[in-house]
Design brief:
By secondary structure, the protein is mainly beta. It is built from no helices and 15 strands. The mean pLDDT is 86.
Amino acid sequence: FTITAGLDVNGALPGTGGADATATVATDVLALPDLDPKWSGPLTITAGTDAAYTAILRNAGDGRAVNATVRISIPREADLVRFEQSTFHDCRSSVQEINCREPVLHPGGEASVRVIVRPLKLVADGTRLLLSAGADPSGAVRESRENNNSAFIMPTVRAPADLGVTGTLSILDSSLYTC
C-alpha cells in the first residue's frame, strides 16, 4: 500500500501540478482476522428432553486466525449430554463448558460443533436458558473487530406434558375398578 501526499505552499489549485513538495510512503497493511461466533438451534425445548444446538466460529476478517478458540458455556439448569460432529481440530469438555480450538482458520473459513443439552426435569415452565459462545476467550488473537466475539441463544423451557389418566373402569363381571 502506497500513500503519496503533496504540499502546496504557493496556493496552486489541486490538479495543476504546482505542488512544491511531494512525499511517498510505502506501508504494509496488516490483514487481520475477525472471529465471529454464531448459534443455531431450537428456541423452545422441553424439560428432561435432549436438544441439539450448533455453535459456529467463522473468520469474517481478511487475515488468518492462528489458534482460533471458542468457549461454549452451558447454564446450570441444563446438563451437557455430549458434543459431536465437530469440525474443530480439538474440543474438550468439562461439566458445563466446551473449549474448541482450530490451529488455523482462514478468511471466510469456519469450524463448528454440535452440542446436545438436556434441561433438568425440575426446571420451571417458561425458564429461559442462556447458552453462550465466546471467541478467543484469552485475547490471544489480534482481530480487526474485537466487539463481536460473543454469541448467545436463549431457548425457553417448557414443562413436559402430564399424561396421567384417571377414571373408572367397568368390566363384564360388574366389578368396579378405580384408577
